[in-house]
């Protein structure tokens, strides 16, 4: 029956047709027109969508940017992130989640939003095509994301097993797409849908402004302990690498020797990587990134060791490693697969930690509301306010403003840090101070013992 065909399905095909992997869509207004027509007469939808597909499929994106007439779009052209010494950096966020998490992802996106940054969202094969379309439509229907055009959604949800190398492959794809989308960003930040920021973006931009742009914040150690046998001697096969659906990894019966061609380092999978290092991973002429990738294709939790091992075995990058991931989390005793879910009882420790992000949170936990009100000053459904918003942000520690201060905006390069930004800057400066930095960088245990 014609009238039962879901309109969103047609819409999905239009944006997927633009680029099979990334949906940098076209115009949401077309979708609205199609919806209206569909109600009036379902038959009319086909010619309209066909015209839409032709127009948007063939027009170069530069035309799509400037010429659609609305004041909003024209304004975009003039508002680019200024770069240079003394100016804040630009972050590129990779935010990943699975089925049923699109609301969590959107809330996280708003909580880490800044017009200077870039965002790439991905929902893995655990999500339905309808949910991924829903996420893309939600992004396109938000006025701020539409004007600044710095949020993209990966159109295809490929299979990911977070305990296997497919999780690493997804992260590397995110990094590659963010390099390709341009936007001259400085740092690549990985987040999961269960993460939440505990500082504003102004705080984070301020804390990173004075840092050398080649630093990589990666928690790492080469004290492998029990992991040496469990993780690196065992051979793991991750069917998500070759399957359409999320599939659990399994362990082969054979074991192999711990490598001696390079030294393994392991740590947290949540990283902040410099642009030069990401380029080295994705585009570099050196063979180590690829060789390691092939080795880690059969290692459990490859995402916890790949960047660590690559950084520490590359002489040109090992001195850029900061041994900290700037996240707050609590492990159970004994530790389980994931850190504990945080709730209101953890609020004080989270704030005291001085970290930039915390994990893990349950969807809509009351602590998120508290963080929104007290720390981020974010109104429900709004983005985290900053110096770029033209409205009144109001005082910290009291209730968030009733009116969203970011309905209008001014200079997007203006950053106004609060007390938590200053605290984060102190933490970061301490971490990168000469003696701290070099004593914790890729230290080999053997070297320690030998001293
Ligand atoms: C790392 O060392 C290189 C030279 O070997 C130097 O140019 C670079 O500034 C150093 N980076 C840091 C963060 O110390
Ligand atoms: C908060 O988390 C702690 C530790 O995981 C747990 O013991 C406690 O019951 C939780 N409280 C609530 C209100 O969920
Ligand atoms: C989230 O929680 C608040 C109370 O903390 C409740 O009022 C609201 O309806 C919840 N929203 C969703 C989408 O569940």
Automatic annotation (TrEMBL):
Topology of the protein relative to the lipid bilayer: Single-pass type II membrane protein
GO molecular function, one term: glucuronosyltransferase activity
Cross-referenced Pfam families: Branch
Keywords attached to this entry: Glycoprotein, Glycosyltransferase, Membrane, Transferase, Transmembrane, Transmembrane helix
Record bears the keyword Glycoprotein: yes
Any one Gene Ontology cellular component term annotated for this protein: membrane
Cell location: Membrane
TM ranges: 37-59
PANTHER family per record: GLYCOSYLTRANSFERASE, OS04G0301700 PROTEIN
Protein name: Uncharacterized protein
Species whose genome carries this gene: Colocasia esculenta
């Amino acid at each position: 029956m014609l009238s039962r065909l879901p309109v969103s399905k047609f819409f999905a095909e239009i944006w997927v047709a633009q680029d099979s992997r990334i949906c940098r869509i076209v115009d949401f207004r077309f979708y609205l027109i199609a919806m209206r027509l569909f109600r009036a007469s379902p038959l009319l939808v086909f010619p309209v969508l066909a015209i839409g597909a032709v127009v948007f499929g063939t027009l170069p994106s530069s035309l799509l940017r400037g010429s659609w007439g609305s004041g909003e779009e024209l304004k975009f052209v003039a508002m680019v992130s200024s770069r240079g010494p003394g100016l804040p950096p630009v972050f590129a966020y990779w935010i990943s989640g699975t089925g049923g998490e699109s609301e969590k992802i959107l809330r996280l996106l708003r909580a880490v939003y800044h017009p200077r940054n870039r965002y790439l969202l991905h929902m893995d094969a655990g999500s339905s095509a309808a949910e991924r379309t829903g996420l893309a439509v939600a992004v396109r229907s938000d006025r701020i994301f539409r004007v600044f055009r710095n949020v993209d959604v990966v159109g295809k949800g490929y299979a990911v097993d977070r305990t296997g190398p497919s999780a690493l492959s997804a992260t590397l794809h995110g990094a590659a797409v963010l390099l390709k989308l341009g936007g001259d960003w400085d740092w690549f930040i990985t987040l999961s849908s269960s993460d939440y920021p505990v500082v504003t973006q102004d705080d984070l931009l301020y804390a990173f402004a004075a840092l050398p742009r080649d630093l990589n914040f990666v928690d790492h150690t080469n004290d492998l302990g029990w992991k040496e046998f469990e993780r690196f001697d065992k051979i793991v096969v991750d069917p998500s690498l070759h399957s359409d659906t999320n599939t659990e990894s399994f362990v082969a019966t054979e074991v192999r020797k711990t490598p001696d061609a390079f030294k393994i380092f392991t740590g947290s999978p949540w990283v902040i990587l410099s642009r030069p290092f990401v380029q080295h991973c994705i585009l570099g002429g050196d063979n180590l990134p690829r060789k390691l990738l092939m080795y880690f294709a059969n290692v459990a939790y490859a995402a916890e060791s790949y960047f660590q091992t690559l950084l520490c075995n590359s002489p040109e990058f090992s001195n850029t490693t900061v041994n900290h991931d700037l996240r707050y989390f609590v492990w159970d005793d004994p530790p389980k697969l994931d850190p504990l879910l945080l709730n209101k009882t953890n609020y004080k420790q989270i704030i005291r930690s001085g970290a930039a992000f915390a994990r893990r949170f349950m969807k809509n936990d009351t602590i998120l509301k508290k963080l929104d009100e007290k720390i981020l000053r974010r109104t429900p459904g709004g983005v985290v306010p900053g110096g770029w918003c033209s409205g009144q942000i109001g005082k910290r520690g009291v209730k968030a403003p009733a009116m969203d201060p970011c309905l209008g905006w001014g200079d997007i390069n203006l950053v106004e840090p609060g007390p938590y930004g200053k605290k984060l800057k102190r933490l970061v400066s301490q971490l990168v101070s000469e003696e701290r930095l070099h004593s914790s960088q890729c230290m080999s245990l053997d070297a320690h013992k030998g001293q």
